[in-house]
Amino acid sequence: MGAAMADIEIALNKLCSCYNIKSNDVGGIYNLSLKDVSSKTQCPFDSFSQSRFSIRDFGDSPLDIDKVYAALKLCERTPSACNRQSWVIHVYTENKLVEKMFKLQGGSKGFYEQMQCAILICGDLRNYGFYEQNLPFVDGGLYAMNLLYSLHYNGLATIPLTMGHKWRVIKKIKQEMNIPGNEIPVLLIGVGTYKDDFKVAVSHRYSYKQYVKFNQ
Ligand SMILES: Cc1cc2nc3c(=O)[nH]c(=O)nc-3n(C[C@H](O)[C@H](O)[C@H](O)COP(=O)(O)O)c2cc1C
Prior knowledge:
This protein is of the alpha+beta class. It has a single domain, classed as 3-Layer(aba) Sandwich (NADH Oxidase). The chain is about 35% helix and about 20% strand. Helix 4 packs across helix 6. The longest helix has 19 residues.
């Protein structure tokens, strides 16, 4: 992308030839536009689902909160174990809280200031037995993917941000954000608006044939 990286290129080539490492060309970036995205958000699922990307290059037009409400409404239909719907969703739109949440999460350095809304998906542990302690992550994960698609459908730019942290970090996040003890954070979603033209990471995917086993 034009950065002066000749030293790194030389060192990398040396390393690759020394250890016989083959480089691949599946990384990189796509240059997308709001026009591209808008033309796909209301398409049939095959085009729609392939047009969602994690955004790390947001626009500064104001976020329309009605679009967030519309996405949350769609997510009421998310399936869950025994239909318990045990998620608790914290939506932050006030600048100070949004910034605090992203700084505590730590995985959006370099772009957290561009996001206007943070949505923290938690599971309510009181709705699960001692033998089903992974279920909040299953229910919350299904909700999270549904919400990513619903926000995308409503024209908002999103990125999933991990809540897989050491226990002491989770404890600090919960304390600072006033999350009660009975809630377990599952995923944070950063939300913003699109730029007219923006870049996304390619994020190569394996073919399903590499990990799907039929009748084995
Ligand atoms: C559970 C989870 C946690 C993630 N955490 C981060 C994060 O902390 N920071 C980040 O920049 N991206 C994060 N991502 C985004 C992934 O890097 C991204 O989804 C993946 O590379 C696939 O790219 P795509 O979303 O553009 O299809 C996370 C994604 C998931 C599903």
